[in-house]
Amino acid sequence: MTIRDRIQMQLSQGLSALQQIIVLNLAVYLITLLISIFSSLMQVNLTAGLEYFYLPSNLSHLIMRPWTIITNIFMHAGFWHILMNMLILYMIGRILQDFISNKRFWTIFLGGALAGCFLYVLSFNIFPAFSDTVGQSVLLGASGGVTAIAVATGVFLPNYEVFLYGLFRVKLKWIALVMVLLDLVALPDLVNAGGRFAHLGGAIFGALYILYMKGSINLPTANIKRSRRSKMKVVHYDERVIHRKRKAERHKPDQEEIDAILDKINQSGYDSLTRDEKETLIKASE
Fold first, then answer.
1. Which residues form the domain of 250?
2. Which residues lie below 8 Å from residue 13, measured CB to CB, with a gap of 6+?
3. Residue 6 lies in a domain
4. Separation CA 194–CA 117 (nearest Å)
5. Whether residue 273 is found in the same domain as residue 169
6. Which H or E run contains 161?
7. Contact present, 110 and 73 (Cβ < 8 Å)
8. Hey, which residues does 161 pair with through a beta bridge?
9. How does pLDDT run along the chain (286 residues), one tens digit per residue?
10. Contact by Cβ (8 Å): 272, 264
11. With contact defined as beta carbons under 8 Å apart, do 24 and 17 qualify?
12. Do 66 and 103 belong to one domain?
């Protein structure tokens, strides 16, 4: 298959969640770059307006700019900032993308980014170390979401090996662990502390989401008492729900089958799977 054929096939299938995220980040960066170029050539300060898309740590500013909770995720401080984020996202994210749906991939990325935003704002408003900078500090970048994807992949496929820089094999769990440790070690220096908190928030969300998806942890549920009349109304609905669940369970692979396939990946790599085994993983992720 030629490169042209592959491109045509990819376009016909649509972009994956990983590709959508990368394209969106690059598009936003290109727009901000053009604004910066035009601002320099015309000698006008247009880039100051971009600050209204960054996430402020000051709560009064945040209340006036609630959209920054989302827009900051796709903004970057420069070429090297977006390059490193997108490289890490692509190298690790393409592994996870083979095992989960686009919806779940987006959930991990956005959930991790939002968790990073929350931890950043919370930390800058409760720790005395940031009392002098809370009024000026802003957060931007996809680092929280990227870290969430990296840690989620390490938790989901801990023993999956990759060639780091094409020189030696490293298991994903060690890559994820090193990323988290680097942020923890650098945090006491307070250099890029906002970014460190965003990374840690993303890491926590990515790990918890995968553990929940695998059934290792459960969310607390409330036991709400219903009246006798409401129970009578729900009986028929519950029977249909149970029927659908039983029907789905007959077609969904059990955990032992999934674990056996994951063990095979850890030992021989993803390419060693048969077509049926790949389809089984896709069904399990739905």
1. 229-285
2. none
3. no
4. 9
5. no
6. strand 161-164
7. yes
8. 171
9. 555 655 555 555 689 999 999 999 999 999 999 999 999 898 888 888 899 999 999 999 999 999 999 999 999 999 999 999 999 999 999 999 999 999 999 999 999 999 999 999 999 999 999 988 888 899 999 999 999 999 999 999 999 888 876 778 889 999 999 999 999 999 998 889 999 999 999 999 999 999 999 888 887 655 544 444 334 333 333 434 434 544 454 455 667 777 778 777 777 766 677 767 777 776 665 5
10. yes
11. no
12. yes
Number of domains in the chain: 2
Same domain, 195 and 267: no
Determine the Cα–Cα distance for residues 251 and 266; give it in Å rounded to an integer.
Answer: 25
Q: Quick one: which H or E segment has residue 56?
A: strand 55-56
Compute the distance between CA of residue 3 and CA of residue 41 in angstroms, rounded to an integer.
Answer: 39
Q: How many C-alpha atoms does 63 have within 13 Å on its Cβ side?
A: 2
Identify the bridge partners of residue 138 per DSSP, sorted by sequence position. 56
Spatial separation of the C-alpha atoms in residues 195 and 147, rounded to whole Å: 11
DSSP per residue over 233-259, as a string? HHHHHHHHHHHHHHHHHHHSPPHHHHH
Q: Are 95 and 167 contained in the same domain?
A: yes
pTM of the model as a whole: 0.76
- CA dist 158 and 214 (Å) reads 13
Domain boundary among 189, 213, 237: 213
Structure tokens at 117: 């935003």
How many residues are given for the chain?
A: 286
100 in the same domain as 38: yes
Q: Does some domain include residue 67? A: yes
Instruction: Look at residue 223 and tell me if it is in a domain.
Output: no
268 phi, psi to nearest 5 deg? -120, -5
